[in-house]
Structures are given as structure tokens and as C-alpha cells.
Amino acid sequence: MMDWTDRHCRTFHRQLSRRALLYTEMVTAPALVRGGATHLLDFGSQEHPVALQLGGSEPGELARAARMGADHGYDEINLNVGCPSDRVQSGRFGAVLMREPELVAECCAGMIAAQPLPVTVKCRIGVDDQRPDDVLPDFLSKIRAAGVRRVTIHARMAWLQGLSPKENRDVPPLDYDLVHRMKAEFPDLHVSINGGITDLDQVETHLARGLDGVMIGRAAYHDPAMVLLEADQRIFGETGPAPTREEVVHAMLPYIDRHIAAGGKLGQVTRHMLGLFTGQPGARRWRRVLSEGASRPGADRELVLEALGEVTRAAA
């Protein structure tokens, strides 16, 4: 979710669910440790609970980056061993590390020893010519021995040769049953599943079958209300009412005001809000008003209220 789940996106998603664990974009350990890019760690207190997702393959560097994340107040440190992008591969980050479970275990051990937060791993079921039934249990065994107790498994292979990152999200077939078998084989691990899950009905099905959690990425971005609006009630057992889409918009206005007052642009926030009314009357007008107007000089909360007015009129 690089270039997607920035702090503005996370603040918006937090208005829909108070309980869902949010993740940062992947931040590379070299950027933090060698590049001094500590601004990449910035987040707001309203985002909790929030996990810092790191990329890297040098144990000492990852340990230092994890410690920096803990010092900044994150709730979890996550090591990404699932991203298939070319630039990640060239830096020896992401899914290519599925071929080096011993190195991943060493990295995790160093990150755990360096700071007090839980260290979790997001992985694939395998890459390229690997056999998932063989490689995934071995991978999980090694990171468990290093001290990892929570893992999220994207239930697809990553085909690093021949497929683009976009194709790797859709083309390799899903193998949900393998992830469920891993939970049965490693009952002491907290196992979450990822990949192809688009709504809370599917979430509830996976949880009912015994998994501990579900991670949703692009579906939560493109149709956030479908995924997040009732998550606190249906998944976490909250008894209060879920917010309405309109209430979410109004909850974002003070944040928008502060962002613009600090020199930010409206579009930096509203680009993440375009999918809020997906499937609802007025959704197209909402998107059009924000898309066309947010980049104009002086655009502020009034444009958001104008877009909301279009939705209200369409629903009348």
C-alpha cells in the first residue's frame, strides 16, 4: 500500500473504525537509519492502534529502525516479507526474502531484542518455483523460533519473474485452505489472512474457521465504508451504533482545517476519501466535486461540504 496508507488515509480510516489495527506504508530501514528520513515516522495520536511496517534485510539496521519506531510511539513493528514490487526486490526487501527464511529469522530476532513492542511478519505463501506446502511451514517455524508470535499471510504466491506487482495481486491463485492449515499446524501463532477479501461477511467466515485475524488492503481503500464502517460492531463486539458516512465527513473537517492551516493542500487528504460513498446515491457527484476542486488554490472544508451537499441532494 505504498503511496496509499499515509497519515491522512489512516486518520480518515480511523473515523470509520476505532478498533481496526492500521498499518503505515512500508518504510525502508535504510531510509530511516542511513537516510535520516525520520519524517516518515510521523503520525497522529488519533491513529492508534497503528503499526509501523518496515522493509529491509540487514538485521542491525532493522533493529535500529524498529527501536526508532518504538520511540515514536507505534503499537507494533511489522516486517514486510510480501511486497513483490521491482524496487523492493532490487533492495532485497519484501517477497524475495521468502527465499531466505534464516535471514528473516535473524532480522526478527534483532528487532525483538532491540525494543519492547511486538514484532510481526507479513509474508506470502511462497515465491516463483517454491512449493508452498513445503516452504511456508519451514518459514513459519524459523520466525517462530526467533520469537515472532503474530504473522499475516497473503494467500498467494508472488511470481517475481514474469508478473508485474499489480498482476501479483490478482493472477496467482488464492489458497485460503493452506493458511488455515498453517493455523492448525502452528496453534500458538496468531495467524491472520490477507488477499482477495473484500467485505465483513468474508472476514467473519475466516474467523469462524479459526483464524485470529484478517487483513484487508485495497478493498478497504476503494470502498472503506463497506469494510470498516460496521467493523467495530460485527468484528470487535462494540454495542454502540456505527457512524454514518455523513458523520465521518464531519469528523474529518477539523483535521482538514489543521492540515491546511499548517500549509497542506486539501487534495492530500480528500484523495483518500473519494470512495466513501461507493454504491450510494450521489457517489459520482461526490468524487467529481472533490477530484475537480481539491487542487484549486484556496480549496478548503467548504469544498468538502459542497460535495456532501451533492450526496444529500441525490439521496433526497
From TrEMBL:
<dbReference type="GO" id="GO:0010181">
    <property type="term" value="F:FMN binding"/>
</dbReference>
<keyword id="KW-0521">NADP</keyword>
<dbReference type="Pfam" id="PF01207">
    <property type="entry name" value="Dus"/>
</dbReference>
<comment type="similarity">
    <text>Belongs to the Dus family. DusA subfamily.</text>
</comment>
<keyword id="KW-0285">Flavoprotein</keyword>
<keyword id="KW-0819">tRNA processing</keyword>
<dbReference type="InterPro" id="IPR013785">
    <property type="entry name" value="Aldolase_TIM"/>
</dbReference>
<dbReference type="InterPro" id="IPR004653">
    <property type="entry name" value="DusA"/>
</dbReference>
<protein>
    <recommendedName>
        <fullName>tRNA-dihydrouridine(20/20a) synthase</fullName>
        <ecNumber>1.3.1.91</ecNumber>
    </recommendedName>
</protein>
<keyword id="KW-0560">Oxidoreductase</keyword>
<feature type="site" description="Interacts with tRNA; defines subfamily-specific binding signature">
    <location>
        <position position="166"/>
    </location>
</feature>
<feature type="binding site">
    <location>
        <begin position="194"/>
        <end position="196"/>
    </location>
    <ligand>
        <name>FMN</name>
    </ligand>
</feature>
<dbReference type="GO" id="GO:0102266">
    <property type="term" value="F:tRNA-dihydrouridine20a synthase activity"/>
</dbReference>
<keyword id="KW-0694">RNA-binding</keyword>
<comment type="function">
    <text>Catalyzes the synthesis of 5,6-dihydrouridine (D), a modified base found in the D-loop of most tRNAs, via the reduction of the C5-C6 double bond in target uridines. Specifically modifies U20 and U20a in tRNAs.</text>
</comment>
<feature type="site" description="Interacts with tRNA; defines subfamily-specific binding signature">
    <location>
        <position position="284"/>
    </location>
</feature>
<comment type="similarity">
    <text>Belongs to the dus family.</text>
</comment>
<feature type="domain" description="DUS-like FMN-binding">
    <location>
        <begin position="1"/>
        <end position="303"/>
    </location>
</feature>
<keyword id="KW-0820">tRNA-binding</keyword>
<feature type="binding site">
    <location>
        <begin position="217"/>
        <end position="218"/>
    </location>
    <ligand>
        <name>FMN</name>
    </ligand>
</feature>
<dbReference type="InterPro" id="IPR035587">
    <property type="entry name" value="DUS-like_FMN-bd"/>
</dbReference>
<dbReference type="GO" id="GO:0000049">
    <property type="term" value="F:tRNA binding"/>
</dbReference>
<feature type="site" description="Interacts with tRNA; defines subfamily-specific binding signature">
    <location>
        <position position="287"/>
    </location>
</feature>
<feature type="active site" description="Proton donor">
    <location>
        <position position="83"/>
    </location>
</feature>
<dbReference type="GO" id="GO:0050660">
    <property type="term" value="F:flavin adenine dinucleotide binding"/>
</dbReference>
<feature type="binding site">
    <location>
        <position position="122"/>
    </location>
    <ligand>
        <name>FMN</name>
    </ligand>
</feature>
<feature type="site" description="Interacts with tRNA">
    <location>
        <position position="169"/>
    </location>
</feature>
<dbReference type="InterPro" id="IPR001269">
    <property type="entry name" value="DUS_fam"/>
</dbReference>
<feature type="site" description="Interacts with tRNA">
    <location>
        <position position="80"/>
    </location>
</feature>
<feature type="binding site">
    <location>
        <position position="53"/>
    </location>
    <ligand>
        <name>FMN</name>
    </ligand>
</feature>
<feature type="binding site">
    <location>
        <position position="154"/>
    </location>
    <ligand>
        <name>FMN</name>
    </ligand>
</feature>
<keyword id="KW-0288">FMN</keyword>
<dbReference type="InterPro" id="IPR018517">
    <property type="entry name" value="tRNA_hU_synthase_CS"/>
</dbReference>
<keyword id="KW-0547">Nucleotide-binding</keyword>
<dbReference type="GO" id="GO:0102264">
    <property type="term" value="F:tRNA-dihydrouridine20 synthase activity"/>
</dbReference>
